[in-house]
Design a protein that fits this description.
alpha+beta
Length: about 60
């Protein structure tokens, strides 16, 4: 379930909504801040890692 202020998801490696296109991998991220989660996923990508799942749950 995604709440308000989230707008970010990567499901099975595919970026949805406002998710950045990053390398697929074996790391999953759940965060209240969609923007913070996106930033973390981009940093992981820059260091050679990949994201399998990312959900921004929203701040409320």
């Amino acid at each position: 379930m995604m709440g308000p202020d989230c707008g970010t998801a990567i499901i099975n490696g595919a970026a949805l909504c406002f998710g950045n296109a990053v390398r697929r991998g074996n790391i999953g991220i759940i965060g209240a801040s969609g923007t913070g989660s996106q930033e973390l996923s981009v940093r992981i990508h820059e260091f050679g890692g990949g994201i399998s799942q990312l959900i921004g749950t929203g701040g409320r």
